[in-house]
Design brief:
The structure holds two protein chains of two kinds. Chain A is built from no helices and eleven strands. Chain A is mainly β. In chain A, the strands form two sheets. In chain A, strands 2, 4, 5, 6, 9, 10 and 11 form a seven-stranded mixed beta sheet that branches. Chain A has a four-stranded antiparallel beta sheet with strand order 1-3-8-7, with no helix packed on it. Classes of the chains: A mainly beta, B mainly beta.
Chain lengths: 121, 110
């Protein structure tokens, strides 16, 4: 059974950093890309970032480019989202999701339960 | 303002059918797979349709997806009270080099 578990969410002050983790099981992690998607209070789903199956290709939403970094560790079956220079508008529930394929062009076909990030002074 | 346009709301009575549209462009829907998700408050998004018209195992055949040109649609037949949720379309955008979601459609079962 495919499972994704996010962790690392916290309450942080503006300008600070935070790293989210996504540990997966139930599928061959090395074959699939991984997305991060967020849901801000009162808003719709917003795509954040994608990393390809082998980690060589990374894509970011314009709202986070230059501040967030996506990465993956094949040995730990874990994907990460390193967030820097956090802003109040980054406050959201962050989901990681397995992609439907190995790289860009594929949507999300399995989701974790999410981890909450709150940016506030 | 999303690059994908969905109606903000839709409604129907139990047993009826409803269709939710997702309008895009030649940079996204026309040449890429469309995905549809159901989002109930307090739960993770659930995949309903992948690769424009494929239904995952476990999703009732009351849900179907289609695509034509720069638009896609999610059709739900035989509405049930448990279908009340927010529905989102998503697709890769070649110009943005990223995935995009529609703004979401809140479905009410009257």
């Amino acid at each position: 059974q495919v499972r994704l578990v996010e962790s690392g969410g916290d309450v942080v002050q503006p300008g600070r950093s935070l790293t989210l983790s996504c540990t997966v099981s139930g599928f061959n992690f090395d074959d699939y890309a991984v997305h991060w998607v967020r849901l801000a209070p009162g808003k719709g789903l917003e795509w954040v970032a994608l990393i390809s199956y082998d980690g060589t290709d990374k894509y970011y939403a314009g709202s986070v480019k230059g501040r967030f970094t996506i990465s993956r560790d094949r040995f730990g079956n874990t994907a990460y989202l390193q967030m820097q220079s956090l802003r109040p508008e980054d406050t959201a529930l962050y989901y990681c999701a397995k992609a439907d394929g190995s790289g860009s062009g594929y949507g999300m076909d399995a989701w974790g339960q999410g981890t909450t990030v709150t940016v506030s002074s | 303002q999303s690059v994908l346009t969905q109606p903000p709301s839709a409604s129907g009575t139990p047993g009826q059918g409803v269709t939710i549209s997702c309008s895009g462009s030649s940079l996204n829907i026309a040449y890429n797979y469309v995905y549809w998700y159901q989002k109930v408050p307090g739960t993770a998004p659930k995949l309903l349709i992948y690769r424009s018209n494929q239904r995952p195992s476990g999703v009732p055949d009351r849900f179907s997806g289609s695509k034509s040109g720069t638009s896609a649609s999610l059709a739900i037949s035989g509405l049930r009270s448990e279908d009340e949720a927010d529905y989102y379309c998503a697709v890769w955008d070649d110009s943005l080099s990223g995935a995009v979601f529609g703004g979401g459609t809140q479905l009410t079962v009257l």
